[in-house]
DNA sequence: GCGGGTATCTTGACGGTGTCAAGTTAATCG
DNA sequence: CGATTAACTTGACACCGTCAAGATACCCGC
């Protein structure tokens, strides 16, 4: 039924993910412990283990949500009139930067070594992450077949390199290393320029 | 003197840093605990606290060592005949990629959010990190005044953008997200190409 | 309706962590 | 030589992730 205090929670998994996202956002990855999370949701220590094998799997689910968001950004960008691939790319990049800077802890988790290398990424995470990148690579490929890139270009390599630029900028920005927040707008525009140059200006040779 | 078991260690700080670097390399950041470290060095739990305020400070020192290494790479690159700035840059990039891939855990620590944003970077770390980047920016600036870049270019922005590309590629590579090891050589060459394209619009060789 | 099986949740316990507080040893310096 | 001080130790605490074993409530075939 719908009593307030029931032994079976109803949809604990969703509640855990929701609360975990809040904790991650507000207290950072260090503040996100399973014990604290369980308490916030109003459930005992070990309850989460019936919905996630261990903490790593919960983190993977949180990361997967983030990639879902990025993938959505790709789709939204497609709403821009399709004859203007450049403007589509620009729209995607802006959304990407906005996402990374508004949820830095989530972004850090999504692309962090703990999930991908130290631990083993869950199948769900790998699938959504790879498909997000594939969608991006397809857009880059589209720009090639559209004549905006030299015929001989390797679309995969260009996608990797341009994504890496975007990714690197986000990391440096959200971690506050070489790029401070005051520069952000300007740096964003510069990165868009650089990526567009990489992807659409005819290059001297190869 | 030099007895094997003496109450005062002699140079505990250096011994700690040395062993911590080994631990970081071999077992990853998760395997690097102060207790385990103290035991390896043959000293009690709390001994390290007389040389580092807390764990964060020790990690900062480890990161600073890494930036020292990068700075050394910059200097080494200067040994290349100075009339060939492009080759200097290429040399630096190759060394940079080699460093990141050979010591991924260290690289992750150096640029990781836990040190820079979650915690407060030590003054020593900030100083060496910023000066390393400044040296890089100066090289980029040199390429501008050398006529290899359009006059109106903003050297700081170009330095940020090109470093970001390099950084992003390293992250994606060492975290094993979109770029697997087999692609590495090819991706490295592509990234060098991209960065050179970014930094010198009119290049003739290669 | 009922009985058993199963999914869900709980409490207890263990080994691990960083680090505060207070005590102990050894080097140094007047 | 005595006192100050730096270096090191041991005890304790509050966390953490998670294994094991028990309690509870739901569900499905009879």
Write the layout of secondary structure elements.
Two copies of one chain form a homodimer.
Chain A: H1 12-27, H2 34-41, H3 55-77, H4 85-102, H5 104-111, H6 113-118, H7 123-148, H8 155-174, H9 184-200
Chain A binds a DNA duplex (30 and 30 nucleotides) through residues 6-9, 12, 33-36, 43-47, 49-51, 54-55.
What can you see in these coordinates?
2 copies of one chain form a homodimer. Chain A is mainly α. The model of chain A is unreliable at 1-5 and 201-206 (pLDDT under 50). Chain A has helices spanning 12-27, 34-41, 55-77, 85-102, 104-111, 113-118, 123-148, 155-174, 184-200. Chain A contains 9 helices and no strands. Chain A has 2 domains: 1-51, Arc Repressor Mutant, subunit A; 61-200, Tetracycline Repressor, domain 2 (Orthogonal Bundle). The interface between A and B is large, with 47 and 48 residues. The structure holds a DNA duplex (30 and 30 nucleotides).
Output the structural class of chain A.
Answer: mainly alpha
Overall strand count of chain A: 0
Give unreliable regions of chain A as ranges: 1-5, 201-206
Oligomer: homodimer
Would you tell me the overall average pLDDT of chain A?
85
- Overall helicity of chain A: 55-70%
Q: Biggest β-sheet of chain A: count, sense, barrel? A: none
Give the C-alpha Rg of chain A: 20 Å
Task: Give a quick precis of the structure.
The structure is a homodimer of 206-residue chains. With 206 residues, chain A is an all-alpha fold.
């Amino acid at each position: 039924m719908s009593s307030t205090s029931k032994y079976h929670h109803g949809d604990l998994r969703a509640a855990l993910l929701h609360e975990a996202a809040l904790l991650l956002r507000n207290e950072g990855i260090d503040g996100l412990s399973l014990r604290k999370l369980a308490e916030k949701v109003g459930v005992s220590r070990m309850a989460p283990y019936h919905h996630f094998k261990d903490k790593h799997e919960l983190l993977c689910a949180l990361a997967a949500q983030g990639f879902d968001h990025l993938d959505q950004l790709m789709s939204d960008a497609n709403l821009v009139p399709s004859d203007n691939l450049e403007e589509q790319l620009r729209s995607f990049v802006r959304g990407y930067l906005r996402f990374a800077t508004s949820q830095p802890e989530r972004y850090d988790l999504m692309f962090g070594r703990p999930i991908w290398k130290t631990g083993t990424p869950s199948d769900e995470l790998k699938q959504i992450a790879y498909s997000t990148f594939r969608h991006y690579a397809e857009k880059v490929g589209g720009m090639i077949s559209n004549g905006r890139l030299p015929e001989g270009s390797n679309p995969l390599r260009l996608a990797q390199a341009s994504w890496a630029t975007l990714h690197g900028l986000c990391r440096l920005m959200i971690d506050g290393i070489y790029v401070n927040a005051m520069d952000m707008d300007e740096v964003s525009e510069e990165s868009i320029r650089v990526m567009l140059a990489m992807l659409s200006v005819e290059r001297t040779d190869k």
